[in-house]
Specification:
13 helices; 4-stranded parallel beta sheet; 2 domains; single chain; 9-stranded mixed beta sheet; 29% helix; TIM Barrel
């Protein structure tokens, strides 16, 4: 993927999506020197201005993925910051937040600065690291939270592992409260989990090692109560179970500072997909029942679930080609996220287009204290051009990630990102 430098660029004829006001309107957008100069119904192209034809397309703020895995440092064979941020940009994500379960874990100021520096060198999506809650993600001793905040960490999590000790989790919440940053909870009671299929009818029939949905919801309930007690900000990662949705809804009604995310695979797929024994359907938390999937969709519809994140998790083909129980959990998701959500949520009449875009832009930025997203004069040009009429096939040859572990390969999708503008750099897709 190559960037084209554009000092003066006119995006002509598009429909501008305003996720804050929940509106859309026909307008031209003039970008000069990497900043939006005008957003008006009709803007003439002055001499020296290049024109990007956006007729029949939509223009929106760049997306933010607040939960992904870039594998660097340690597993550059699966993904690098350069390849991952290129794939993210292809999916419309201009900012991404990598989880700290790398090798070594991101638990120091130096590791945070390393990740942000590598992203700047790559020149694709911007990186806002998530730091570890505890040293080496061992769940025992608090990591260097204060210095990591100063270095640019926007949240803290031991993602991939729960903080099992309630007293340690209390201290993490209290310490992060002092810096006004959220704690992102990987909700999993490990003692209840034997494998990464949903415990129930399907796992029993297929003979797969499993874990029950209560392994997620019990930890979510504990962490919600701790957040209420400490008055800290808590974010529940990758919600997959009906009970977890109910717990978050209950907590919000009580005034707890809790937010939540889910991922496209949890509102598009169910445990029935495991009948193929294809390890590309193996994720953590696992794909659950149709009832759980409908609850996740309902949680998105009523605002209980605030954000859509990808949990982009690259793995090598050889790792995923193992038998189901032995393969690592996780799928890649940057390049398919928008299309999956557009088809299932917008075309499915669950969310309006503006509300859907808000879950990818305004809301994650607010949770992470990132600059506001807007297509307005005076704002930095951080824009995506969306072709909602496009039908395209997700082929391995077109994947920008180093890994190919997606159950959606070969699928025909509706709606896609056709261009991204990041400052003066235009990426045509």
């Amino acid at each position: 993927m190559k960037a084209e430098n554009k000092d003066r660029l006119l995006l002509r004829g598009g429909t501008v999506v305003d996720p804050q006001k929940q509106t859309t309107r026909r307008a031209d957008v003039l970008v000069v020197g990497g900043c939006i100069e005008k957003v008006e119904t009709s803007i003439p192209a002055a001499e020296g201005t290049e024109v990007l034809d956006c007729r029949g397309k939509h223009i929106a703020p760049g997306f933010v993925d607040m939960h992904c895995h870039l594998r660097e440092p340690g597993r550059e064979d699966e993904e690098t910051i350069a390849s991952g941020t290129a794939a993210a940009l292809a999916g419309g994500f201009t900012r991404v937040c990598p989880m700290p379960n790398t090798e070594p874990a991101v638990d120091t100021e130096a590791q945070v600065r390393y990740q942000t520096r590598r992203a700047v060198e790559a020149g694709f999506a911007r990186v806002h690291p998530v730091g570890c809650c505890t040293k080496a993600r061992h769940g025992k001793e608090l990591a260097e939270i204060g210095s990591m905040v100063e270095a640019g960490a926007v949240a803290f999590s031991d993602d991939g592992s729960p903080v099992s000790d309630a007293q340690v989790m209390r201290r993490v919440l209290e310490y992060c409260k002092a810096f006004d940053v959220p704690v992102i909870s990987h909700c999993e009671v490990r003692e209840l989990v034997e494998g990464y299929a949903n415990e129930g009818r399907v796992s029993t029939r297929l003979g797969l090692k499993a874990g029950p949905d209560v392994a997620e919801s019990a930890q979510a309930a504990r962490d919600v109560l701790l957040a209420e007690f400490t008055r800290a900000r808590l974010h529940i990662a990758h919600v997959s179970a009906r009970a977890t949705v109910d717990i978050v809804r209950w907590a919000k009604a009580r005034g707890v500072q809790v937010t939540a995310e889910t991922c496209p695979h949890y509102f598009t797929l169910t445990e029935d997909a495991l009948a193929s024994f294809d390890a590309n359907y193996k994720v953590n938390p696992p794909l659950r029942s149709g009832d759980d999937r409908r609850a996740v969709v309902a949680g998105l519809a009523d605002g209980t679930i605030d954000v859509i994140a990808t949990d982009h998790a690259p793995h090598l083909k050889g790792e995923k080609d193992a038998e189901f129980d032995a393969a690592p959990p996780g799928i890649i998701g940057f390049e398919t996220a928008f299309s999956l959500g557009y088809e299932k949520l917008v075309l499915g009449r669950v969310l309006s287009l503006a509300d859907y875009v808000a879950r990818l832009t305004v809301v994650p930025r607010r949770i992470l204290n990132l600059p506001a997203a807007a297509v307005t004069a005076g704002s930095e040009a951080e824009l995506v051009v969306l072709d909602l009429k496009a039908e395209w096939k997700y082929e391995p040859s077109g994947v920008l990630s180093l890994s190919r572990n997606s159950p959606f390969l070969g699928s025909t999708m509706r709606g896609r990102v056709s261009a991204v503008l990041l400052g003066e750099r235009l990426f045509r897709l």
